[in-house]
Amino acid sequence: MNRRVVVTGGSCISSLGMELDDVFASLKTLKNRIVRMSDWDRYAQMNTRLASPIQYELPEYPRKKIRGAGRVAVLAIAAADKAIQCAGLAEEAELLKSGRVGVAFGSSMGSINPLLDFFSMLRPPHDCSKITATTYIRSMPQTCAVNVSVFFGTTGRIITTNTACTSGSLSIGYAYEAIKYGMQDVMIAGGADELDATESAVFDTLYATSVRNDSPELTPAPYDKNRDGLVIGEGSGALILEEYEHAKARGAHIYAELIGFGHNTDGDHITQPKKETMQIALELALKDANISPDAIGYVNGHGTATRHGDLAESWATYNAFNKRAVSISTLKSYIGHTLGACGGIEAWLAINMMNRKWFSPNLNLKEVDPECAPLDYIVGDGRELDTEYIMSNNFAFGGINTSLIFKRV
What we know:
By secondary structure, the chain is of the alpha/beta class. The protein is built from 13 helices and 16 strands.
């Protein structure tokens, strides 16, 4: 018998803030958090100068506990820490170490700076002095998941999903399955990514970044006819997923129930999304949730503000919803594309928008691209909407597609 999976905690660390009330206050200003990065002027061959950095200090942790953590892992730890506190598990050391609590966490890659120390030995004068016992640990792909596990002393399953823009959502999906099928009782799940110019360079070489360098308030503009590309952000997001009876027995507050997860791959092109398989991922989530698409009142879109991405996503959504103009908006118009973090951040904020019955609008959406599907793109001051079910979608390089469905409790 499949077990029910509920969300008993969560967190969002982004340029919008760390505390939920602060984040919603920021959302309601209807202003993005995109800035011009003046120190990127040194990269003469890179076109974009825009990003969405966190402009506040992260929590300070004992050096001994984060010795092997680069910035991306510290972001992951901070998100997990706040989510655990939110779930009322901070004092449950025995439970955390019981083997029934696992970690599913991902990022696009490890921290960048430690890699420079490795590269220093490959070029004259072949200096190895910068390589330490933690150089690899800070830069390894699994650094977020491992550091979260070590920080909290969990001894259950560990899942690392280094799948770029679906790292967070895929972690949540795999964590959901681990609980649903009885392998774990609680999972700490999410994603993180730190801001680095090299990440913007990846998209810049594909002519996919916004170059409105002197008007950061006007970009990105997902689904807009005149959008000119994405903007990179940073942050982390985490959910605490828990088996329903386990949560009920300890009197936990339940924010939502995760009832559907869909995941597949395009198997076609590394960087160009395919609407047909994206649609199937959404339909798989609906099938898993055992609900009609008509029950979904809101979709949190991936919304990268790239032409190929917006078109493929919008048509996949429209067709999966039986050509219904479902309400949709994306948080990337506020904080940019946080890559491995976006799935965690967006799922947690979408859950809380559902509970608060207010959904943020798409910023900078002045004229919907006529090539996009005719969805109900939320604009203006946002939308007061009372719905029992929402969907959160993310897609990544490699044709990796994810869809999560949450039910209000």
